[in-house]
Amino acid sequence: MSTQGTGDVVVIKDLVKTFNKGKVQAVKGISFSVPRGQRLVLMGLSGSGKSTTLRMLNALNTPTSGTVEVLGQEPAKLKGKDLRHFRRRVAFIFQHFNLVGRLSAIENVLSGALGAVRGPRYGLMAYPDEMRQEAMAHLERVGLAEKAFQRANTLSGGQQQRVGIARALMQKPDLVLADEPVASLDPESSMQVMTLLKELTEEENLTVVCSLHQVELAIGWADRMIGLRGGQIVLDQDARSLSPEEASVIYTSVDPELQ
Ligand SMILES: Nc1ncnc2c1ncn2[C@@H]1O[C@H](COP(=O)(O)OP(=O)(O)OP(=O)(O)O)[C@@H](O)[C@H]1O
Ligand SMILES: [Mg+2]
User: Fold this and answer.
1) Please, what sign has the CA dihedral across residues 48, 50, 56, 60?
2) Ligand nearest to the Cα of 228, by number
3) Any idea which architecture 8-101+153-258 has in CATH?
4) Of ligand 1's atoms, which has the minimum distance to the CA of residue 52?
5) What residue's CA is closest to ligand 1, atom 24?
6) 21: CA distance to ligand 1 center in Å?
7) Under 8 Å between Cβ of 85 and 73
8) Is the CB of 49 under 6 A from ligand 1?
9) CB of 20 closer than 6 A to ligand 1?
10) At 58, phi and psi to the nearest 5?
């Protein structure tokens, strides 16, 4: 939920990330800020640095140099309780959904709740009534109320990702990160999931940073598009005025290092 005033939710300056003692340069000095409420898509070929960038927003990767500020904090500097508190405010939607397969849809949604009981062994009844009602309302919102008590691993991919979205909303996040949220889905489910994600984040005025491969999905979905190629920004534009021809810069003259 947007509880703070206006301002930038994400501020990235001269960000560099290398792996293998500098042999792999995944991100080569990028800078951008994301204002509150913006829906930003990071586009680029495989290996262009999208996941690495997203992961630095949530302290899953630490910068080699440069700075990342999210919600006024530097994720890489947080530890213990502060890091846990920070991660509650930043929801992450994964390509492979990352649900606990043997738990029901509603238990997976509940695991996103603030102060959620840790570990599945406590079962559904360990959660207070109002939390269960809230989880059910989120499932209803993503069109899955009737699947609430079904094991997550028996749901289709599209349904699993809708559970993933409901879990993210249960967190009441200030920022939503999504790394290729529809890459494992067929075109129809992809469209459904992206539409849902747009509607829900619009309703809550949430800030979203989402990586995507497909230009055609991003145009019409995003407010803004940043194109990465070989770890550098090659395009940063209002997504509503972007033509597919302009977007093609992301996919041409691929950095030979990456081939
Ligand atoms: N943990 C790691 N160790 C070594 N190299 C890594 C690591 N993580 C990423 N890389 C490298 O960094 C570069 C950028 O990878 P990244 O995963 O950010 O790309 P991406 O744009 O998300 O690609 P995709 O579309 O395939 O998900 C790649 O060359 C990748 O091999
Ligand atoms: Mg990736």
Assistant:
1) negative
2) 1
3) 3-Layer(aba) Sandwich (3.40)
4) 18
5) 46
6) 15
7) no
8) yes
9) yes
10) -125, 20
Residue 60 in contact with ligand 1 by CB distance below 6 A: no
**Does ligand 1 lie within 6 Å of residue 158's CB atom?**
no
| The predicted structure's pLDDT at residue 79 | 95
pLDDT at 2: 41
Domain boundaries, the chain: 8-101+153-258
pTM (2 d.p.)? 0.91
Give every residue of the chain whose pLDDT is below 50, as ranges.
1-5, 256, 258-259
The 10s digit of each residue's pLDDT in 150-162 is 999 999 999 999 9
Q: Measured between alpha carbons, how far is 46 from 62 in angstroms, rounded to an integer?
A: 20
